[in-house]
Amino acid sequence: VDRPGQSKAKGRRKETRERTEMQAAGQRLTMRTTASRGAKAGRLASGSSRTARSAVVAKGTDRDIQIIPSVLPADWANMGQCVADLEAAGVDRIQFDVMDGNFVPNLTFGPEMIAACRKYCKTPFETQLMVSQYASETMLKDYVDATKGPNGEPGVVIVHVEACDHLQRCLKQIRELGGSPSVALNPHTPAEMVKNVLCDVDHVLVMTVNPGFGGQAYIPTMLDKIRELRAAIVAGGYDVDIEVDGGIKADWTISQCCDAGANCFIAGSGMFAYPTLKEGCDALRAIAKDAQAGKVLPPP
Asked: Which residues does the annotation mark as catalytic?
């Protein structure tokens, strides 16, 4: 039998234990609530981050800007020095516009001249085949080999969808021969024509002039085509760059194309017109990067 003093002590100990348990329960509830709020905030922040990332990818602003001069305005009698000067200017690739006088009303150069330029620089090459189907099929290996890097790295070889009855087969051959297969569309050609080969290419080139001659005026209605292609590339999860070629200058033309989703810019007279090639390259790159950052120049 407990004496009166012992009963009181037991009662106090019981009350203390109950208060301690209640305090502990309260702390656990507070911790769960805080954790829940933190998790919710984290999910919201993560969702916001994903949304922002999706917007960046959808516009192509996650992809590196590449400045690619065309050698059409160069001194063809001194082409070796020209590619060396372009490399010193800091360009990302050098494009050779191959024309056969059939697919386009002009005649330029063949694989031998491209291959001869390789010893003058290490900058990657890019060959756009503005040639008939017969010429591209019979000389495809020659162009792929001539376009390769100094150690056999794949060079970009672009075929026109309008000149290929069997486009997928041609692109597959470029890959098998050690090149980087890419496809081009003339201004009148809808984006739909290349959507079935986006899984087979590394680049899609949107012509913003009709091919054949340098110094032509940019066609602004090509922006919707660029947007459509970027949307298809994102929807399919493809790792594909969008190039534009024709009338591109360090002004609203490159800015608008970049904002639409392009990230590779071919410039001929728009780059060679500067006092130095480096000034031209830097000017083009600066405006494109500004456009990626949201500073887009309006058309005149």
From this structure: 97, 245
